Fold NfeD family protein.
Amino acid sequence: MDISLWWLWFVAGVLLIVGEMFTVSFYLLWLGIAAMVAAVLAYFFPEEYWLPPLAASITGVLLIVFTKPLTARARQAKGYHDPAFSMANRQGEVVEPVTPTRLGIVKVGNEMWSASAQETLQPGQLVIVISQSSTVLQVQPLVENTQDRPQQESVW
């Protein structure tokens, strides 16, 4: 079975563009386009093995550098919601201890995240997400407001 090199570049480009649809980061889109450029070059110049990786590298870097202002403007557009920063104000549960000097693990929804906190948090403790970097959540303990709850009368 003979697989041409351009096919590999083409499949990589399609996978990166599909990945962009899920992440909306704009980086996978540019890398997908760069892989497609490499696929075209690999198709027309199959003997030049060095050309597709070089073209993909240059195209990817140029697209990322020169479109950064465009993507920044798109992210600030009214109505744009960055899914990467949608974790704020969500509740979670500590799975592995979190200390001020060590990251722990929290479960938010069905996802596990690395988390940092200003105080020590124990497994099973409920937390609320304060902010989010790309891979680490800043959390604090969830304190329920008991003053607003009606007092339960004792049955005894």
